[in-house]
Write a structure and sequence with these properties.
By secondary structure, the protein is low in regular secondary structure. It contains one helix and no strands. The chain is flat and about 130 Å long. It starts with a helix and ends in a 99-residue tail after the last helix.
Amino acid sequence: MSLAARHLFQTMPPIPTLPKTTLPPLPAMPTLPTATLPPPLPTMPTLPKPTLPPLPSTQIPSSLPIPTLPTMPAVPKVTLPPLPTFPAIPSIPKTMPAIPFLSPPPSN
């Protein structure tokens, strides 16, 4: 049996019990004064509602001509000149051209 295994079989010394610490009591919370409500406001006296006399009934005479709006003048149509044609953009080649000195020799 190795020395390390013997140390594992040895009993551990008992851990001493520590004394329990006691905390001091918390201070008492001060009580806040309670708010008092202001005295109620005096009630407003209600005023009497005035009554209005009825409106006289007026008839709109139907013999009045209906006003007509003036006609809008016709706006002449303006034709725009055709847009100038732009030259076509040359296309970009998709393959790189072979550079004679840097490209490999042909395989023929």
